[in-house]
Amino acid sequence: MTQKMWTAVDRYFDDVLIPSDPILDAALQAAHDAGLPAINVTANQGKLLHVLARSIGARSILEIGTLGGYSTIWLARALPQDGSLISLEAEPKHAEVARANIARAGLAASVEVRVGLALDTLPKLAEEGHAPFDLIFIDADKQNIVGYFEWAIRLSRPGSLIFVDNVVRNGAVVDADSTDSSVQGVRQFVAAMATETRVTAMALQTVGSKGYDGFVLAVVNR
Ligand code: SAH
Ligand code: DHB
Ligand code: MG
């Protein structure tokens, strides 16, 4: 199986299942025009996040790693009228692009993008009493996943979902000697999960237009 085929199959299903969407297209175009890296979730992955949020009736969502707000829009569209989403982003320029994309999507009232290193802004969310979040999407730097996951649990309730993106990294995750700090960040996270009793977690490998990767999906235990 080749990247060419994974991309073709993604396109085949996208054509049928994901109607063309001027707002999402414009969000990607604006991110591209602003020079942001094209590391957003695929349409299909965005829709998976949307389906998960809808299926648990999520009213409050936390995202760590906004980029241009593409995944943010998929998630925020799953919220009810009075729902809310907070997205944490380190780069002011990314946040600016995201805010414009979110406003264009008509979601400005329910979405807040906060600038700062997530390990600095997460404690403030706790202090301000925003928790618990029903769904937490972890998609920032991979070096700090252990810390983000710990905060995600603290800011959750029993039944909350925690989704951690990019845990396979083209298969590099199995290389214990990897010199890639992202790979080591994922491995530290996986090691921490071995003794983590507060969640029930699984990891799934994925292929598609974005290559070979995967995610961890966890539900917070009662
Ligand atoms: N969720 C987005 C993609 C996020 S890419 C989507 O699918 O559309 C990862 C983002 O995390 C980048 O914008 C990067 O600037 C941000 N980031 C990296 N380190 C961070 C940190 N320490 N705190 C907050 N955001 C961070
Ligand atoms: C990277 C980050 C992501 O969130 C992603 O989905 C793919 C790649 C990266 O930092 O390389
Ligand atoms: Mg990602």
Structure report:
- With 222 residues, the chain is an alpha/beta fold.
- 42% of the residues lie in helices and 20% in strands.
- It is built from eight helices and seven strands; from the N terminus they run αααβαβαβαβαβαββ.
- It has helices at 3-17, 22-33, 43-55, 70-76, 92-104, 118-127, 145-154, 181-193; strands at 60-64, 84-89, 111-115, 135-138, 161-165, 199-208, 211-220.
- The protein has a seven-stranded mixed β-sheet, with helices on both faces.
- It is globular.
- The model has no long low-confidence stretch (mean pLDDT 97).
- The protein binds S-adenosyl-L-homocysteine, 3,4-dihydroxybenzoic acid and magnesium ion (MG).
- Magnesium ion binds at residues 139, 165-166.
Oligomer: single chain
List low-pLDDT spans. none
Overall SS class = alpha/beta
The proportion of strand residues reads: 15-25%
Instruction: Report the principal-axis shape.
Output: globular
Strand order of the largest sheet: 3-2-1-4-5-7-6
Keywords:
globular, alpha/beta, 222 residues, binds magnesium ion, single chain, binds 3,4-dihydroxybenzoic acid, binds S-adenosyl-L-homocysteine
Q: Any chance you could write out the topology, listing elements then pairs?
A:
Layout lengths: L2 H15 L4 H12 L9 H13 L4 E5 L5 H7 L7 E6 L2 H13 L6 E5 L2 H10 L7 E4 L6 H10 L6 E5 L15 H13 L5 E10 L2 E10 L2
Parallel strand pairs: 1-2, 1-4, 2-3, 4-5
Antiparallel strand pairs: 5-7, 6-7
Helix pairs in contact: 2-5, 3-4, 6-7
The structure holds S-adenosyl-L-homocysteine, 3,4-dihydroxybenzoic acid and magnesium ion (MG).
Magnesium ion binds next to loops.
